[in-house]
Amino acid sequence: MVDVLVIGGGNAALCAALMAREAGASVLMLEASPRTWRGGNSQHTRNLRCMHEAPQDVLVDAYPEEEYWQDLLKVTGGMTNEKLARLVIRASSTCRDWMRRHGVRFQPPLSGALHVARTNAFFMGGGKALVNAYYRSAERLGVQIRYATPVASLELDDGRFVAAFTADGQLIPAKSCVLAAGGFESNRDWLRDAWGQNERGEWPSDNFLIRGTRFNEGILLKHMISAGADAIGDPTQAHMVAIDARAPLYDGGICTRIDCVSLGIVVNRDGARFHDEGEDFWPKRYAIWGRLVARQPGQIAYSIIDQKAIGRFMPPVFPGVTASSLPELALKLGLPQEAFVKTMADYNAACQPNDFDHTVLDHCHTQDLMPPKTHWARPIDTPPFHGYALRPGITFTYLGLKVNEEAAVHFNGCPSPNLFVAGEMMAGNVLGQGYTAGVGMSIGTAFGRIAGTQAAKAATQKANHAAA
Which of 333, 365, 393 delimits the end of a domain? Predict the structure, then answer.
């Protein structure tokens, strides 16, 4: 019998497996995907939000605990467990040396990501390089890994883990277990159940795209909730971004994101604006736009910029629709021409002259316009004009399992002695809503390491108890 069973194959699962193995436990990892697609959503990441009191290699200036906490508090609207959030924040300041020991390398941010040069450490080679480095380290340390092995259910005994049942019926016992199998974002039926129909009779989730892995179907999460594990979070809350409407249904990753929203305006299919595009820096607010687009007719919107914005944002993979005039752009995008041109004229007239600076919260704003644009408001008047169709893109869902500081799964308020959870399956404890760049990797790294340590400890205690 193995000491620690880790279910999942992304960042949190790998951190748990490595920590458990370093503690001397024998470890088996079960990854639902084939080897080619290993790594879950972590393969699509690129950075980690890090607390630091002074400049550190690729991190400039300082990003102290209280500022990190206030940033998290703002984006979640207070829907967060402060004790667990601060645990994550503090852990983010000490994890990078450990990550380096397992082969992870860091690099300065690219020019289009300078807003997070102070707060986020970027992985050299991105998330795929990170998970590959962890897998190499795990294999070197003797972690057993089985691919294409989804887990359907667990055998539990009054909150204690006994064994896991794979989808093909295999029974795998272990002395302790870490759950890190992700959310339910690629389960189309569950998304339909969660989001339901809107007042227009539409099923909004049918128009959602999945930025991450197709293997996060939430089967184990649903089983755990049915088995009486304490849950936390709203099933409609998620890390949801406005992405290119031409993106693939699964695994589009970061390259499908449209990052020019704050430099122009966004309209719905009726040609109307519906939210302040300039309320804060893009890394703090980009993850609200998926939900905003999801509430629009047909779950589609259009980001509109002019030539002045080019070169000030990370360019998307696919070129936008271009036109020499705004009426022509409306025609090419399939928008009602009269309504769109009026929206543009009203916006341009409302822009107040000031010094534009997209690197700070500048004083370029609109006046007497609803919704307002509070920063970076400049007339869109310099051709060629560019338009990008947007769809909601889900990264991961926030419904998960309630935990304590030791990452233990709870049943009726009581922590399990040998069942732990990390990553997206518990991120809702910290992220009740909203998102800020890199915090998902901070949560997965912190709780993955905690869960692995605690699982190894629980396995040792069980072995000692059996010997006595």
Answer: 393
DSSP alpha helix (H) spans, 23-93: 65-76, 82-91
Question: In this structure, is the dihedral angle defined by the CA atoms of residues 6, 11, 16 and 19, taken in order, positive or negative?
Answer: positive
Task: Look at the block and give the residue holding tokens 């009054």.
Answer: 158
Mean pLDDT across the stretch 417-428? 98
Smallest CA-to-CA distance from 388 within 285, 249, 242 is with 242
Residue percentage of the chain with pLDDT more than 90: 87
- Name the residue among 93, 92, 86, 61 with its Cα closest to residue 72: 86
Do 75 and 48 have their domain in common?
yes
Q: Pick the more confident residue, 464 or 280.
A: 280
How many other C-beta atoms are found inside a 10 Å radius of the C-beta of residue 54?
9
Kindly tell me if the per-residue pLDDT of 282 is higher than 80: no
Q: Using alpha carbons, list the distances in angstroms from residue 27 to 9, 65, 108, 130.
A: 13, 34, 34, 20
The answer for residues whose C-beta is within 8 angstroms of residue 15's C-beta and 6 or more apart is 134, 422, 444, 445, 448, 449, 452
Sign of the torsion formed by the C-alpha atoms of 345, 346, 352 and 355 = negative
Supply the CATH number for residue 450's domain. Answer: 3.50.50.60
Distances (CA, A) of 421 to 51, 227, 445, 451: 23, 15, 12, 6
Q: In the listed set 393, 423, 458, which residue is the last one of a domain according to the structure?
A: 393
pLDDT tier, 25 (very low <50, low <70, confident <90, very high otherwise): very high
Q: Indicate whether 228 and 243 sit together in one domain.
A: no
CA 340 to chain centre: 33
Q: Which domain holds residue 344?
A: 239-393
Cα 394 vs. chain centroid, distance in angstroms?
A: 8
Q: 52 with 165, same domain?
A: yes
